Amino acid sequence: MGNDISIRKAEGNWVVRAGGAVLGETQNALELTEGDLPPVIYFPRDDIAMAFLDKSEKVTHCPKKGDATHYSIVTKSTTLENAGWSYESPLTNVDRIKDHLAFYKSDKLAVERV
């Protein structure tokens, strides 16, 4: 694909959980691999409970993927600031991740194959 990025369909069923709630579950996740970095799972936006996500002011830039909009996750017990991101207008070489979200794994947020 160029730019040492590859995107493929992630095998199996994937779930993202935060604050005891399932935020999303899909069989249509994408796995993005970039160089030697660990793979990142991208969930289709349609498979995420967007009511739990608030768009934040944070925007970051990746020269290989474009500008990433960040989202905070609001649960009953906590707000996880900038816990997820989306390339809403990705560069052409990674346009498959458009309309997908990825999440930063932590002790309060899990991204798992189930």
TrEMBL record:
Residues 15-105 form the DUF427 domain. It comes from the Bacteria. InterPro entries: DUF427, DUF427_sf. This is Uncharacterized conserved protein, DUF427 family. It comes from Thalassovita litoralis. The lineage of its organism: Bacteria, Pseudomonadati, Pseudomonadota, Alphaproteobacteria, Rhodobacterales.
